[in-house]
């Protein structure tokens, strides 16, 4: 069974003499066409529904889709009784159509086109032309021309139409290199009419006409496209076409050759070594591109290089090449690209880099010549010209110093991970990850699902919107919902992004290995920090140094592209943040390279620093760093730091209670309860049990609260902790008052120890006891007693310097004073918690 989508939809049956078995129903053709465009990848039910009904699906859409899939399976079975039905499988959250080699014309076209491009790179022009010709022969018309298009098929049609024209241009270019210009003139004249603004096709036509002795016709062809561009777009032809026009007017004899190195690229009027073909996946970056083109490169013509820095995989090369193409008019004499690393990622030496540039410029570097002779050749390259040199992935100033243009009008555009020392006159552009919209657009442009799909935004955030990761994920053509689900667990995310040389993880680890050992260790230890911004104090704690030294280490990592600056703290002090994927690399390297005892010590230092909330505004501190603090409790427990787990949970208790952070409260204190048990610390166990009882009481889980308070009472009693015993009894009394049993509550409060320990714990336990006594007095109509108890609460709250408890005590005192013979119907039993009086 074979499928065709490059034209009208076709299904060719197996074993029936090649008879067609194409479905006739439009909706079924839509389902099949969508599955074929995403062959061997899961297509979600949501995607299929969007493709079938766009923004207005019927209420029965899922059921109707199941009917269509069932009919499609029957059709596939009829076309291929052995394997047809099994080819369409249900895979949550949708379906996948499994196809083997040679079953789909689209995959065959893409393979032939790619092989043709590789042959062109190897200067095997005959093979390149043949492969592109075979690829183009597979097209029977526009993509799925008889099938209704939704968003996914529409975007696929646009992408593949562009790819088809690119294949055509490459085939013609290969044939020009083979000297077939006479055979091509007629075809090119027709193509120039069909594509009146496609400069590549008009360039091919001009070369073919010139080689056949029709110089005047070649110049008229240039005049036609120049007039068209001016009338339609109000622009001039690009540099390549303009330079080709000048060469034809001058009667350049090198354009007459059809083979050999000189003919391979000058057919388009370009320098011997050209920039790569435009990247079809490049999208967004409007602000960065405008700054690079309109500000930096324009100004750099007066001298000094332009340097684009950023972390590995952030898209520096793609941005630089896009900017280079937009500045053709600024640099009409050529644009050269030198990649300063080998395919394995190893930096080129300065001499190797010079030789590569000379080869790119078409200058034969003398093998026996010395450095002075090679540098002389380079100086001659720049003289009297306006050229752009893109130096990609530079490692050091020493590597590129000899390459920098020395003549006015020639500019070097350098990409590197860190600023290069010694380039004082450089114009910098620091590149960050793209915004959410641009990241989703890149995923779509690189072959992923449409940007509107809900899972696409999640995928972008899970990989930190890193372009290298987005491209790698999009290339898999997987269902976005399933892909997002696989990326959510942190422990396997780097593996999901690929393994081996060139993978996202390998690129990030390579960037890590390039920095000095001290920076590598700082990076590893900073991976212990929870996600989110952090300041020098927290970095100092985990690194075991003073804050100034921690700040210096952080700035060194920022320069290396391994750390980013975050929004400053409220006091304007610096803050930093690890990219989500770099944080995973740091954690991975920490496990592999750092001694376990060093990790334990770092976590202990971090816990000690975090367990001391600032006196000025502890609630603001907790609200800002809440996720990081909760994650740190988890890390301390996982590391076996039982005392630190308890201490940190104790420090978080007031903020967790005040902000009603119930889930975090339960998580941290459950871990701390376990840690207290491992320490055999009954006092700590009593605190955690009582705190969990308070939480259960607030959540109205009264049976659970009863259990926690009772266990806290017994544990505190055994530990001799009178403060916690008092608070546990007050909690049990609250439960009895809730149940309308004031006599039971009074009995419990009568068992409160006469005096608890000194200090804050004593004041807090006495506050809770007085609060419960005041509520009991209100419930039983003893207003004067209630006033006395709530007055005690106010004094104790002032001693504790707790504004929340002071506000509660004032309000309770006022309610008691107003009660008299008419007690209030509603009572505030704890700060912010109200209930109806239970006793008449």
TrEMBL record:
What are the DNA-binding region positions? 1-99
Q: Which residues form the OmpR/PhoB-type domain?
A: 1-99
Query: What keywords appear on the UniProt entry?
Result: DNA-binding, Transcription, Transcription regulation, Two-component regulatory system
Q: Name one Pfam family in it.
A: BTAD
Instruction: Give the matching InterPro entries.
Output: AfsR-DnrI-RedD_regulator (IPR051677), BTAD (IPR005158), OmpR/PhoB-type_DNA-bd (IPR001867), P-loop_NTPase (IPR027417), Sig_transdc_resp-reg_C-effctor (IPR016032), TPR-like_helical_dom_sf (IPR011990), WH-like_DNA-bd_sf (IPR036388)
**Keyword Lipoprotein belongs to the record:** no
Please give the SUPFAM superfamilies that the UniProt record associates with this protein.
C-terminal effector domain of the bipartite response regulators, P-loop containing nucleoside triphosphate hydrolases, TPR-like
Question: Which PROSITE patterns does the protein's record reference?
Answer: OMPR_PHOB
The entry assigns this protein to a family as follows: Belongs to the AfsR/DnrI/RedD regulatory family.
Know the name of this protein?
A: AfsR/SARP family transcriptional regulator
Lineage, uppermost ranks:
Bacteria, Bacillati, Actinomycetota, Actinomycetes, Kitasatosporales
């Amino acid at each position: 069974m074979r499928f065709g989508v490059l034209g009208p939809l076709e299904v060719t049956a197996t074993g029936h003499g090649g008879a067609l078995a194409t479905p006739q129903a439009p909706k079924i053709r839509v389902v099949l066409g969508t599955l074929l465009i995403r062959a061997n990848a899961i297509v979600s039910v949501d995607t299929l529904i969007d493709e079938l009904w766009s923004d207005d699906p019927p209420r029965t859409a899922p059921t109707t889709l199941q009917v269509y899939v069932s009919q499609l399976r029957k059709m596939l079975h009829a076309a291929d009784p052995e394997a047809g039905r099994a080819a369409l499988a249900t895979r949550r959250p949708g379906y996948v159509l499994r196809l083997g080699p040679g079953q789909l014309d689209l995959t065959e076209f893409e393979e032939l086109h790619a092989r043709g491009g590789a042959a062109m790179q190897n200067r095997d022009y005959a093979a390149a032309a043949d492969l592109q010709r075979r690829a183009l022969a597979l097209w029977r018309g526009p993509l799925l021309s008889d099938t209704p298009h939704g968003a996914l098929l529409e975007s696929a049609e646009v992408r593949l139409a562009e790819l088809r024209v690119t294949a055509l241009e490459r085939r013609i270019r290969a044939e020009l290199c083979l000297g077939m210009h006479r055979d091509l003139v007629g075809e090119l004249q027709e193509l120039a009419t069909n594509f009146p603004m496609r400069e590549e096709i008009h360039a091919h036509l001009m070369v073919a006409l010139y080689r056949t002795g029709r110089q005047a016709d070649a110049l008229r062809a240039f005049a036609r496209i120049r007039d068209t561009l001016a009338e339609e777009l109000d622009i001039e032809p690009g540099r390549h076409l303009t330079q080709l026009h000048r060469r034809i007017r001058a009667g350049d004899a090198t354009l007459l050759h059809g083979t050999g190195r000189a003919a391979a690229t000058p057919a388009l009027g370009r320098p011997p070594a050209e920039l790569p073909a435009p990247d079809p996946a490049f999208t967004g970056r409007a602000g960065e591109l405008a700054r690079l083109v309109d500000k930096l490169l324009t100004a750099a013509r007066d001298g000094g290089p332009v340097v684009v820095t950023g972390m590995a995989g952030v898209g520096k090369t793609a941005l630089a090449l896009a900017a280079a193409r937009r500045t053709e008019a600024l640099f009409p004499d050529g644009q050269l690209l030198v990649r300063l690393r080998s395919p394995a990622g190893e930096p080129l030496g300065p001499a190797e880099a010079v030789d590569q540039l000379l080869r790119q410029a078409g200058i034969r570097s003398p093998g026996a010549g010395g450095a002075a002779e090679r540098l002389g050749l380079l100086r001659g390259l720049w003289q009297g010209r306006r050229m752009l040199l893109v130096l990609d992935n530079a490692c050091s100033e020493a590597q590129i110093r000899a390459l920098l243009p020395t003549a006015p009008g020639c500019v070097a555009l350098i990409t590197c991970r860190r600023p290069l020392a010694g380039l004082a006159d450089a114009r910098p552009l620091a590149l960050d990850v793209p915004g959410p919209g641009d990241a989703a657009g890149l995923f779509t442009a690189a072959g992923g699902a449409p940007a509107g799909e809900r899972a696409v935004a999640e995928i972008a955030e899970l990989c930190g919107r890193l372009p290298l990761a987005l491209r790698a994920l999009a290339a898999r053509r997987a269902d976005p919902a399933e892909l997002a689900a696989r990326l959510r667990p942190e422990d396997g995310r780097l593996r999901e992004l690929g393994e081996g040389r060139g993978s996202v993880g390998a690129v990030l680890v390579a960037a890590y290995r390039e920095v000095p050992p001290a920076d590598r260790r700082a990076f590893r230890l900073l991976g212990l920090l929870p996600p989110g911004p952090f300041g020098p104090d927290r970095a100092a704690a985990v690194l075991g140094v003073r804050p100034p030294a921690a700040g210096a280490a952080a700035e060194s990592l920022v320069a290396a592209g391994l750390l980013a600056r975050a929004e400053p703290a409220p006091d304007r002090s610096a803050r930093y943040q690890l990219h989500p994927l770099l944080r995973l690399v740091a954690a991975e390297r920490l496990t592999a390279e750092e001694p376990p005892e060093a990790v334990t010590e770092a976590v202990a230092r971090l816990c000690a620093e975090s367990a001391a909330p600032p006196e000025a505004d502890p609630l603001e501190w907790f609200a800002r760093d809440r996720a990081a603090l909760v994650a740190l409790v988890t890390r301390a427990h996982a590391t076996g730091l039982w005392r630190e787990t308890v201490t940190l949970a104790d420090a978080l208790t007031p903020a967790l209670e005040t902000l009603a952070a119930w889930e975090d409260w339960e998580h941290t204190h459950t871990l701390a309860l376990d840690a207290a048990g491992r320490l055999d610390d009954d006092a700590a166990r009593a605190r955690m049990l009582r705190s969990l009882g308070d939480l259960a009481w607030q959540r109205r889980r009264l049976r659970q609260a009863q259990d926690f308070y009772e266990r806290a009472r017994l544990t505190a009693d055994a530990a001799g902790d009178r403060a916690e015993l008092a608070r546990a009894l007050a909690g049990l009394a609250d439960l009895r008052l809730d149940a309308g049993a004031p006599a039971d509550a009074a009995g419990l409060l009568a068992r409160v120890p006469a005096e608890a320990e000194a200090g804050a714990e004593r004041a807090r336990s006495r506050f809770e006891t007085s609060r419960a006594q005041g509520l009991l007095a209100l419930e039983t109509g003893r207003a004067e007693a209630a006033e006395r108890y709530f007055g005690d609460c106010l004094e104790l709250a002032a001693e504790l310097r707790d504004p929340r408890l002071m506000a509660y005590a004032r309000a309770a005192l006022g309610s008691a004073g107003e009660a008299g013979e008419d007690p209030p119907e509603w009572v505030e039993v704890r700060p912010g918690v109200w209930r109806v009086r239970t006793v008449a």
